[in-house]
Amino acid sequence: MNLFSLEARELAAELRRGSLGPVEVTRAFLERIEEKNPALGAFLAVTPERALERAAELESLPPAERGPLHGLPFAWKDNLHLDGEPLTCGSRILEGYRAPYTATALQRLLQAGAVPLGRTNMDEFAMGSSTETSAFGPTRNPWDPSRVPGGSSGGSAAAVAARLVPAALGSDTGGSIRQPAALCGVTGLKPTYGRVSRYGLVAFGSSLDQVGPLARTARDAGLLLSVLAGPDPRDPTTLPGQGPPRPGDPPEDLKGIRVGLVKEHMEQDLDPGVKERVLAALEVMEDLGARVEEVSLPEAEFALPAYYLTAVSEASSNLARFDGIRFGARVDRDGDLGGLYEATRGEKFGLEVKRRILLGTFCLSRGYYEAWYKKALQARALLARALERLFARVDLLAGPTSPRAAFPLEEKLADPVGMYLCDSFTVAANLAGLPALSLPCGFTAGLPVGLQLMGPPLSEERILAAGAAFQSVTTHHQAEPEP
């Protein structure tokens, strides 16, 4: 049995059955990480002692006490707190900081029996689409190490794609789970806003952020969501009375499902190879019985500017707490408080984070709030209403996750607008708080392409079922990068 070719749900089933032991599986994945991570930079840190201790505890559990993720190794993006472990958000400003508590999302995985292997790399404070803005160096795409894995959850996506871990957690503020999932050829889910607790997630854009899983398949993502989802009294934005969806077998077909192909997303600056693979994927869905029709979302032109104005404004507020006093690093400057702030932030924040803080502060400043931030909120509401109208006609919206496949390292670092355009198709789901899934739908020039499925609020089961049905008749998700 090849452990590394098993999907997360398959591996979890073998572990619960007892045909594999948690210690054996944990050691195997730790050895693989040690061998392959130096070339990829997917992990910032591995926790072998904690992982093996946890695996040993699980080893002795009787079958009746084994959770749904019994012994399953996982990784987590380095903006989620795990008690006692360092947390950096990919930034030098959090040097020396250790988590004093555990994020609800991580706690729920641990309670379900999962084994924590380590923290994955990310764009600094989740600000980026390539995992190149990390203060600790870039992550490389397992399909082509000269290219980016996407971002900001690029470390988690690369770790799953390279079979360093069967599943991982990421966060998605404007596409940061789905875009790297697409570029790395794995499956990534951004749940409905409020479906998964954000307690213990370092905030970027508080009205946009959501924690979600990256894994090989839609069924794997559904298994993790069934553990992650649910209200949390420590996060007042979680949705009350919403129990976790139940992972089930994929439907045999998609009869009765109405799928809308967003015309505007197919008309933008879209790579021809990506367009071809997305259209081919929709033909597969039609063969499964879905009714695909073209729909128009003219409000899509407002999505990217509304998102970036909202996100940077919220980021400038959220990141004000990193001042050299309360958390992490401090750069002293002649005992002057203003000088301490300036020196700490100037030295420890990276260029992209500084850029977004300055943009956000500008948008919120007197005389510009009405012209910029308020207009962004109005555009956001307009887009949300337009999407609501579309979902009265169709069950799902479909299209490309990213305008193009993985691009070369450093290609867009000096072109921030070009980098922002990578999120063109993903930000709408965050602005409207909707669930969206990216799943592999083929390759162009040897690089993975992602298909995005988006649904109305709390339609995760529908989206995951459609993704699972697609993956039951395709093999794109089974492809592995060269060892």
Please provide a written account of the structure:
This protein is of the alpha/beta class and 483 residues long. It contains 16 helices and eleven strands. β10 and β11 (447-454) form a beta hairpin. Helices cover 38% and strands 13% of the residues. The chain has an eleven-stranded mixed sheet with strand order 1-3-2-4-6-5-10-11-9-7-8, sandwiched between helices. It has a domain at 3-258 and 464-478: Amidase signature (AS) enzymes (Alpha-Beta Complex). α2 (22-40) runs antiparallel to α3 and α10 (303-318) packs across α12 (351-364). The longest helix has 22 residues, at 369-390. It is globular, with a radius of gyration of 21 Å. The model has no long low-confidence stretch (mean pLDDT 96).
Give a brief outline of the structure.
With 483 residues, the protein is of the alpha/beta class.
Shape: globular
Q: Structural class, from secondary structure content?
A: alpha/beta
Measured by DSSP, the beta-strand proportion falls in 5-15%
Task: State the strand order across the main sheet.
Answer: 1-3-2-4-6-5-10-11-9-7-8
Query: Uncertain regions: pLDDT < 50 for 5+ in a row?
Result: none
Distance between the termini: 17 Å
Overall mean pLDDT score? 96
CATH architecture of the domain at 3-258 and 464-478: Alpha-Beta Complex
The top-level CATH class of the domain at 3-258 and 464-478 is Alpha Beta
Percent helix: 25-40%
Give the biggest beta sheet.
11 strands, mixed
Assigned CATH superfamily of the domain at 3-258 and 464-478: Amidase signature (AS) domain
Remind me, CATH topology of the domain at 3-258 and 464-478? Amidase signature (AS) enzymes
